[in-house]
């Protein structure tokens, strides 16, 4: 049925994005969205997947438009968080860290973020760290990436944990914290 195909399109888009095939991911999402039989909840999922593809393609405005459509459909808290993460990422890609921060805080309270699965909380912390980097705040970015690494570890996502630790090392370097940088790079390498 149409909803099952929509779920498959979202899953396929997620995989394609992981392999750098954003155009193909977007095409699959758009094809599924064209089916009028797809339920609203599935449309929201498709729009969020499409927004992530748009960000990967460098189409931040199109991504934001998709997120706005998804949010109108009143998605579940986890999907809403994914939408806000995508919107914030799109704003950051437009080199607007203030709007990126606003996108994260407008849609959900800190309490709501803390009730989400650890993987989404890790993405949230990592995105906030990227915003801190854009604002030239390496110490804040370090703390947020450390938090993301811990959350990734608890979520059982060790490759993401290693990437967060490596990014923390880069921010420690930027903050002239050589010992902190060495520690994070060592832990990242040991995690692989």
Core attributes:
192 residues, mainly alpha, 11 helices, elongated
> Spans of 5+ residues with little confidence (pLDDT < 50)?
none
Radius of gyration using CA atoms only: 17 Å
Spatial shape? elongated
Mean pLDDT: 95
Number of strands: 0
Task: Name the helicity range.
Answer: over 70%
Strand content: under 5%
Our count of helices gives 11
Order of helices and strands: HHHHHHHHHHH
Walk me through this protein's architecture.
The chain is mostly helical and 192 residues long. It is 82% helix and 0% strand. The protein has eleven helices and no strands. The chain has helices at residues 2-18, 22-33, 40-56, 60-72, 77-93, 97-107, 110-114, 118-134, 138-154, 158-174, 178-191. The N and C termini lie far apart (41 Å).
Topology:
Elements: H1 2-18, H2 22-33, H3 40-56, H4 60-72, H5 77-93, H6 97-107, H7 110-114, H8 118-134, H9 138-154, H10 158-174, H11 178-191
Helix pairs in contact: 1-2, 1-3, 2-3, 3-4, 3-5, 4-5, 5-6, 5-8, 6-8, 8-9, 9-10, 10-11
Summarize the structure.
The protein is an all-alpha fold and 192 residues long. The chain has helices at 2-18, 22-33, 40-56, 60-72, 77-93, 97-107, 110-114, 118-134, 138-154, 158-174, 178-191.
